């Protein structure tokens, strides 16, 4: 069994930032990148709102730079997925890919969240080519164009409002005849002229020309099938925090997000810290994830100095 001082699970902005800080603090961090190396950001194209990159930066390139920066300070970045875990006593036991056993003095969980998709093959085909689960990331590319947002919750309304400020027209595809979103949010949507709500509709297929999205085929509850012309198809049907593995030990909220103590990254297990989207149902931005990765490394450093 390999002994590790500071183990970081997750290779998104939170994990890499934690690795940068932990390496600079001589904690000899080992980071496993998990299922999606580079994290959720790699499902988008250009990132224009990460500070320090006027003109934007390719999302994969940004993550490559974070990985390189972590490595340059001595972080040991590896590929592999944590498949089993035991946080009942220190050192914490973690199994990678079902075979490699690790014993960690401190653990930073930065496994992120996964946006929910409808699960249509056509949606998968156009991911990153018109299909997106992040209006803040990709909305800018649809200035003066027509887009659709799927969902009727606060996120869908927020994303539709954001997109309506850029796009010519926004359709909201809502599967029931009511929103789940708060009244305040609903009122804002109703008051926005270029948002058209398609009630009682489900998406049958995302239409495209092989290069990008050109439309969507919808099925209304009354059985009518019709097409809409769109350039972008945004999913806002919720996120799912990647916290299942840790649930028996750390506290999670009703939606599965790991609960941390106050402004810190501390979970209820001493020596286990959480950073990024796995503990943040609210902001979910690369820059906020990075900031919480920094906090987790600082908290882990303090913990390791005291034990
Ligand atoms: P929610 O779970 O609140 O809403 C999900 C929406 O997606 C619902 O309208 C749901 O429909 C719909 N949906 C789910 N699955 C499908 C599907 N397969 N096909 C079509 N539609 C589907 O998620 P949110 O991400 O919107 O919000 C998560 C939490 O974050 C909430 O508590 C929300 O209040 C909060 N939030 C608050 C914000 C704010 O206050 N500014 C901003 C964003 C989020 P149905 O209603 O029929 O189930």
Molecular structure report:
This protein is an alpha/beta fold and 307 residues long. The protein has 2 domains: 2-114 and 239-306, 3-Layer(bba) Sandwich (FAD/NAD(P)-binding domain); 117-235, FAD/NAD(P)-binding domain. The protein is 24% helix and 29% strand. It is built from 7 helices and 19 strands. The strands form 5 sheets. Strands 1, 2, 5, 6, 7, 8 and 19 form a 7-stranded mixed β-sheet that branches. It has a 5-stranded parallel β-sheet with strand order 10-17-11-12-13, covered by helices on one side. It has a 3-stranded antiparallel β-sheet with strand order 14-15-16. Helix 5 runs parallel beside helix 6. The two termini are 21 Å apart. Bound molecules: NADPH dihydro-nicotinamide-adenine-dinucleotide phosphate. NADPH dihydro-nicotinamide-adenine-dinucleotide phosphate binds at residues 118, 150-156, 158, 175-176, 180, 237-238, 281.
